[in-house]
């Protein structure tokens, strides 16, 4: 007997392919595109931080960043949050 006689031609001989429920991998999601459109999986809401780092330099940095954003008009919560987060990032990177 030959190998052809044992395994029918219509069925795959690969164990993984034989037990596979669907054909091929599913379509991959374009993560960068989804993030730009706001469809990110773990999207966090920006909560404005109202505490500047406990140094005079941190307070000056926040004031300067807010002043830069205020040139456009009204300061939004996101811009305020960015100002505080930037000051804290600079403060924590010195350690």
Using only CA atoms, what is the Rg? Answer: 28 Å
Number of helices in the DSSP assignment: 5
Mean of residue pLDDT values? 75
Spatial gap, N to C terminus: 75 Å
Extract low-pLDDT stretches: none
Secondary structure: number of strands: 0
Q: Approximately what portion of the residues adopt beta-strand conformation?
A: under 5%
Name the helicity range: 40-55%
SSE order, one letter for each helix or strand: HHHHH
Largest sheet: none
Structural class, from helix and strand content? mainly alpha
Dominant shape? elongated
Keywords:
95 residues, mainly alpha, 5 helices, 49% helix, elongated
General description of the model:
- With 95 residues, the protein is mostly helical.
- The chain is built from 5 helices and no strands.
- It is elongated, with a radius of gyration of 28 Å.
């Amino acid at each position: 007997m030959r190998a052809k006689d044992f395994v029918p031609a219509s069925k795959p001989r690969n164990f993984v392919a034989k037990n596979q429920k669907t054909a091929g991998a599913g379509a991959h999601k374009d993560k960068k595109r989804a993030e730009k459109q706001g469809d990110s999986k773990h999207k966090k809401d920006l909560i404005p931080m109202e505490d500047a780092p406990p140094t005079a330099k941190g307070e000056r940095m926040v004031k300067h960043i807010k002043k830069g954003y205020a040139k456009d008009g009204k300061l939004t919560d996101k811009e305020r949050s960015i100002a505080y987060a930037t000051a804290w990032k600079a403060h924590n990177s010195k350690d």
